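[Backbone geometry]
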Amino acid sequence: MGISIKTGKAVLLASALSLFSCVSKVEEPAEDLLARARVEYENGKYNNTRVLLDSIKIVSPKAYKALREAEKLRREAMIKENESNVKFFEDELKSLVAVRDSMAAAFDFNFDKRYQSKGYYTAPTQAVALNVYNNFLRACVYEDGTMYLTSFYRGKSIKHKCVKLSSGDTYVSCDKPFLERNFKDLGVNNERRDYKYGEDGGLVDFVLASQDDVTVELSGANGTVSYTLRSSDAVAIRDVFELSQAIKAVKRVEEMLGQARYMLEFLKRSEARSSASAE
C-alpha cells in the first residue's frame, strides 16, 4: 500500500520540525552564553567575555553558528584587552619615570663617553673630590639599575680583596670584587675594589638593615685595616639602593609595555588576515 502525497508532506514537515527543534536545543544555550558574553564585552570585562565564550565549546560543541560568532568576538575581546594593557603600562611607565627622575635629580651623574658605555649615579656626599683622604664605601648605580659598592682605601698597601661589615656579633663579608684598581696619588698607595649588589655577600643588605654602628674591615695579602662606617655613607648607600629600585621598576614596565605592544600588533595583523579571508 502506497503513502499518499498528503501523508508524505506531513512526514517531511514533521521531520523538518523535529530537526529544527533539535537545532534550537543545540543553539539555544550557546546563544544565551553568546549574549551574556556580548554584555561583558560592552562593559569592558574582556576576561569574563573570553570565559563565557570558552563555555560555548563545552556546553554546545555542535552549535556551529554560535561558535563562529564566538570566535570573532573572542578576537575582538583580545584586541580590546591588549589595548587596555598597553594603556595601563603607558600610564604606569609615565608615573614611574617621574618618580625615577625626581629621585635621580638629587644625585651626581657621572659619564665619560671616552671610556664608559653607560653612566652612573652617586650621592653628592660621596664625591671623590670630597673624600680624597678618606677610607669609605661608595654606592653607585648604573643607568640600567645595577648597583655596586666601591671600597676606597688610601694608605700602606694591603692588597685588599675582602670587605667585612660587622655590628656586634653579626657580620657579612665578600672577597670577590668584579673590578680591582691600584694606583699611586702623590706617592700614596690607593686601592679600589668594586662589589656588585646581589654578588656582594650581603654587604648592601647589611647596611640597609643596620641600626647601630657598622665596622668596616679590609683584609688582603699584606694585612688588615678597620674603620667605622660614617653615617653619611650609610645614608648614601640606602639612598642609592632606593634609586636603583626606582630605575629597575622603570625597566620592568618598559619590558612589559614592549611585550604588550608586540602582542597587540600581532592580534591586529591576525584579525586583518581573518577579515580578508572571510570576504
Strands lie at 108-110, 120-122, 136-142, 147-154, 160-167, 170-174, 179-185, 188-196, 215-220, 223-228. The helical segments are 5-42, 46-59, 64-104, 203-209, 231-278. The chain has two domains: 8-86, 106-255.
